[in-house]
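#onboarding

Welcome to the new folks! Below is a worked example of what a typical request in this channel looks like: someone posts a single protein sequence, and someone else replies with the predicted structure as tokens. Don't worry about understanding the tokens yet, we'll cover that in week two.

Example request:
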Amino acid sequence: KRFSHEAWSSQPIFHFIKEYYLINAQFIKNMVKEASKFVEDKKIKHQMNFMTQQWLDAISPSNFPLTNPEVHQLAIETNGKSLWNGLQQFFEDLEHDT
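Example response:
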């Protein structure tokens, strides 16, 4: 679902970004799986897997405007208004959190 937009497959740069992320994410998962073989506590193993997946989800290229083709497309369609609105929302959120 994260990479369902057709640009992730049809545009070479986004396809590269997606594949690079997926290959590295699988490598990291495999490393954690191997490391967990040395851990006896099932709770700790679960925490290792859970935190690894949370981190991998957080760093997905789909979460960043510069590496997300859907953001690019919407910015073009709205003549940049979508980016402006997002920036305004960001600053409003900052004001409410302080």
